[in-house]
Amino acid sequence: MAVRGIQRFPQNQYVDAVRWLPIESALERLAVVALFDLDSDASSIQIHSLNLNQSSLEPYSSWASPSRISSLKASHFLNKPLIVASTSGGSLHLLFSDSSDASFQSQVSLPEGSLHSVPASSVDLLDGGVQCVTAGEDGKLNLVAISDSNLNYRRLFDSAGLVSYTAVRWASPSEFATAGYGFTLHWWDHRKPGGPVSHFKANWDKKFTSGIVHSIDIHPSRKHTCLAGGSLGTVFAWDLRWQQQPIILSGAGAGSGNNAIQSISESEVWEVQYDRCIKSNTSSTRILPSMICSEDGILGVIEQGEEPIELLAEPCAINSFDIDQHNPTDVICSLEWEAVAILTRQ
Question: Does Repeat count among this protein's keywords (predicted)?
């Protein structure tokens, strides 16, 4: 896989997260950028217009957030672009955009303290935008029903602080996975209250007992497998058919001797996504290719049984990235040194 081009766009603020805005247009590419001003302590979400031919990434519209963005997603709701964001204050915001000019049309919110007493570490939006799930370091999980005028939520679970959640991802309209400390993963069915329906905690080496999963992903065609990335460059998969056997793809614990697996990073893996750009073996036992970004500035592709591919190596952390659903050769990522990078693959 070859990289055709990389363009970097400096920002005057720290970039907390980036996402492609899913608007189907042959003439326009739009990106959602969560920004934080270190001097004024102000946060915002901006929609940017991208023109690769003219090497420009210009802000279209902006929305001021009451506190720093902790998680950002973009999807559709009733054929309108929808942005959902959780904040360090524990609030949740849904921003509806006008598909004709990409401006912010309206918003509905749940105020600080209503869902979480600490930052909502992660939020995920169900395809179609009818509901989202939030997970927090306070051990609370919430299911939020969405309309264009209000939000209704119910508490799914409260660990009373005994468990902290760092990531959440839908698997189906009724099932989702969560991740946390110690490389633990939980599988939930919100039709079955009281706790997770399945719990993954492998017999890790001692150095992994304090590890954290920062990001998880579930492929729509492989809903039985959860992909996870976290501390020490660790990327692994949990297949529900083999409950306690992690499939190590990269990281400090990725085997030794003849079974050694080359690791693409040895630092924190901040985000992991299945890479739909790569066509791979369709065997149901083979983990589909994935893309990761890391604290040591690596954006790369991992495929089970293959040498990892380094797409980008920066002198600073790459904190988040997103693969364009309509043009999976295009990847947007946020750089710790106040910049957005766009990478185009062949």
Answer: yes
Instruction: Report in angstroms the alpha-carbon separations of 283 from 25, 222, 251, 287, 304.
Output: 34, 11, 24, 8, 12
pLDDT (0 to 100) of residue 205: 63
Tokens (6 digits) for 54: 């003219």
- What does the block give as tokens for 160? 């009373």
pLDDT digits (tens, 9 = 90+) for 220-267: 888 989 999 999 999 999 988 876 678 889 986 555 555 566 789 989
Q: Which amino acid, residue 172?
A: S
Best CA proximity match to 214, nearest among 292, 113, 315: 292
Mean pLDDT of the chain: 88
Identify the residue whose tokens are 């055709």: 4
Q: Enter the pTM of the model.
A: 0.92
End-to-end CA distance of the chain: 7
Q: Which residues contact 156 (CB under 8 A, 6 or more apart)?
A: 133, 141, 142, 143, 188, 190, 193
Please state whether 128 falls in left (phi above 0), alpha (psi between -120 and 50) or beta. Answer: left
